[in-house]
Amino acid sequence: MLLRIAIYVTFFLAVSHGATLPYHDNAHSVEDGDKSGGKRTKDPGYVRMPVSRQKFKSKGKSKRGWHWGLPPDPDDIPPALEPKRPFQPTHSTSPTRPPQTPWPSATQSTLLSATSTAQPPTVHRRAAERRWGWSSLEELGGIAYIIQLDIGTPPQKVRVFVDTGSYELWVNPRCSTSASDALCQTFGNYFPSKSNSALHIGGNFAVTYGTGAVRGSYWSDVMSIAMLQIPQVQFAVAADSNYTFAGILGLGYTYPYSIPYPSVLNLMVSQKMISAPIFSLGLGGDGDGFSEIIFGGVNRWKFAGPLVPVSIWPPVRDQDPRWVQYWVNVTSVGLTTPNEAGKLYTPREGFAMPTLIDTGSTLSYIREDLVAVIGQQFNAEIDLQGNYFVDCKYRDMPGTVDFGFNNGAMVINVRYKDFIYQLYPGRCMLGVQPADYGSTNYVLGDTFIRGAYLVFDQQSDIVWMNQYYNCGDGVVTVGQTPRDTKNVFGAC
User: Fold this and answer.
1) Are residues 321 and 250 part of one domain?
2) Which residues are CB-contacts of 8 (< 8 A; sequence separation ≥ 6)?
3) Residue 375 — φ and ψ, nearest 5°?
């Protein structure tokens, strides 16, 4: 995936490109938390998250199941991506794959009781009949969006980034080598030794980042998420990491594509908690204080009219099966300035820009020529690294940056306030930045997603979308039949 997260540390942010996982003299066990030492790294401006998978080294299966094995060798460090090309995804050519846990039976699944701390939108059906799960998301200053998990028996609270640009769940970053030790500590840790239901699966998990890396091993445990309790969820527990200060919940395409075991979304379906691998996302405006995710449902009070189907493009069948993503075709880019008609910066016909929708990317990354012309409208300044900075005053002005799909059938108008990213008071970045030189790996990150209500539909290979509004709450189940999301009309 192409995940970039800007990290705001106190009142200063420095841009850094490229990093390697530091060497540690002592192995760091997942049972030990963050007790071991390690050389402290500098705070980066961006943590560019997983861009390559490392070779899996499973221990094999015995009569007792997967071997537990020893903690990963601290010398077995995945290499960092070359600083000049941090966005180009690479793929492992290893035929080996991570070990897998069996798909639990539907009778093992249960819904959380009414005493759950989550407060869902108003519903008009009994909980036993509900086929969706709701959770609020915590906004981290426009940087990323966070969901709480309760893992193990008794439950241990862990907060992770929600990421549509990756496909696995992992927890327990090493805080001592993260961009912000203090912030990392607030996200919680999972200790398998403290859970009566933990099972060590085996195999090695390793991912390289544009700035840093993470590695660990696979475990299985009971997990509560979005009002649902799922047994036997397989996920990775980090033994070592660098720069990243929180774990990640990947919500991309998984089984049977990128991994051979069922993901959290797959398990929700197999346990009949939701009807199909579908989830909806409403991040809301920057700083509005309301963001949500709904698995198996749509909140019809977050948009007006019908949701427009935007097909995954290139189609799933044409994508690398090891790296299937939510690519969509952007067919226009424009700007609506205060008191003026909208301007189009792309041809009215024939323009195509396949772009990944990625909640894990703070900013959006598109063609450099488009960034340049948009930057001119904001009198942007370019630093030595090629980053576009603008005056923060634009955040308080009316106006939108406009992204079109389906040849203009759907246009998402993103408010300046949601589009221009404030690094810290008085320092703002343009919401779109140039993709790496020569790269066509374009990304629509949070600076786009805040303007849209999105439904990620793996059943029909569609991202349904409309303009985001917030006029109340009311959830409708989707996925009972293919493409039934088309029947949901927004109430705003």
Assistant:
1) no
2) 141, 143, 423, 424
3) -60, -35
**Pair 161, 262 in one domain:** yes
Mean pLDDT, the chain, whole residue set: 79
Instruction: Report how far residue 269's alpha carbon sits from residue 272's, in angstroms, rounded to the nearest whole number.
Output: 5
Does 128 have pLDDT greater than 60? no
Tokens of 277: 């691998």
Task: Note the pLDDT tens digit of each residue in 464-489.
Answer: 999 999 999 999 999 999 999 999 99
Q: State whether 270 and 288 are in the same domain.
A: no
Q: Are residues 295 and 247 in the same domain?
A: no
Which residues have a Cβ under 8 Å from the Cβ of 284 and sit 6 or more positions away?
A: 139, 290, 291, 292, 450, 468, 470
Q: Which residues are catalytic?
A: 163, 358
Structure tokens at 116: 């759950």
- Give 281's pLDDT tier (boundaries 50, 70, 90): very high
**Which CATH number do you get for residue 372?**
2.40.70.10
Whether omega before 50 lies within 30 degrees of 0, making that bond cis, reads no
**What is the model's pLDDT at position 41?**
33
Chain Cα centroid distance, residue 41:
24
Q: Where among 220, 243, 274 does a domain terminate?
A: 274
Q: Are strands 145-151 and 138-139 parallel, antiparallel or unpaired?
A: antiparallel
Show the tokens assigned to 36: 């071991």
Q: Return the structure tokens found at 203.
A: 């195999």
DSSP for 144-207 reads -EEEEEEETTTTEEEEEEEETT---EEE---GGGBS-HHHHHTT----GGG-TT-EEEEEEEEE
For residues 388 and 196, what is the distance between their CA atoms, to the nearest angstrom?
51
42-78 core/surface letters (b: 16 or more CB in 10 A; e: else): ebbbbbbbbbbbbebbbbeeeeeebbebebbebeebb
For residues 190 and 146, state if they share a domain: yes
Residue-range definition of the domain harbouring residue 347: 280-491
Neighbouring CB atoms inside 10 A of 134's CB total: 23
What's the CA gap between 267 and 232, in Å, rounded?
Answer: 9
DSSP code string of 205-250: EEEEETTEEEEEEEEEEEEEETTEEEEEEEEEEEEEESB--SEEEE
The neighbour count for residue 196, using CB atoms within 10 Å, is 9
